[in-house]
Amino acid sequence: MPTPDPRVDAYIAQAAPFAQTILNHLRAVVHEACPEVEETMKWSFPHFMYKGMLCSMAAFKAHCALNFWKAELLMGDAAQRDAMGQFGRITALEDLPPVAQLQAYLQQAMQLNDAGIAPLRTRTARSSTVTLPDDLQAALAQLPAAQQHFAAFSPSKQRDYIEWLEEAKTAATRTRRREQAVAWIAEGKARNWKYEK
User: Fold this and answer.
1) Would you say which domain of life the source belongs to (predicted)?
2) Most buried among 46, 89, 97, 129, by the most CB within 10 A?
């Protein structure tokens, strides 16, 4: 058995007691099914590698998640779930499939990696046209420079501002974001201008 990654040990130790039980169980199942597996941390949670990504597990405040990298190939439509992984929000060992089923998924995932089969990636087609919310349109109309810059933005840059505005949970937040957006747009700045090089 490969040496356990101490970062995974630390991750499990920091999890809530209910999550520690689940994570330790999942880790043991993965190692039993795939003795050659390598542990690592990616995106701040444990991943298991076997000739590429195999699966990952994560703990949250009230649930855990198990995610197979090639879930769509393993489970078809059943792989689509609301939580981060394919088995929904795992709050107890009883929420997981039987060990034999998990090991079967792991064996299939290993075979896919052995064969070099890539995960399915479906892209959703986005329209190149953007629907401007009335309040943003009115705010831009009051400042011609902002209106000109916004019209010159690509649809994706326009969409970044619109989505940011529409994700606001309160009217006050939406107003604050709209005012900030118009100020940045007037300067010709994209929504994520701070991160552009």
Assistant:
1) Bacteria
2) 46
Q: Which residues contact 149 (CB under 8 A, 6 or more apart)?
A: 185, 186, 187, 188
Residue 81 to residue 87: CA distance in whole angstroms:
7
Q: Rounded to whole angstroms, what are the CA distances from 27 to 35, 57, 189?
A: 11, 9, 46
Residues 68, 104: Cα–Cα separation, whole Å: 12
Euclidean distance between CA atoms 85 and 189, whole angstroms: 36
Q: Do strands 45-49 and 64-68 pair parallel, antiparallel, or not at all (unpaired)? A: unpaired
| Residue 60 identity | F
pLDDT digits (tens, 9 = 90+) for 111-167: 999 988 877 665 555 556 678 888 999 999 999 899 999 999 988 899 899 989 888
pTM over 0.85: no
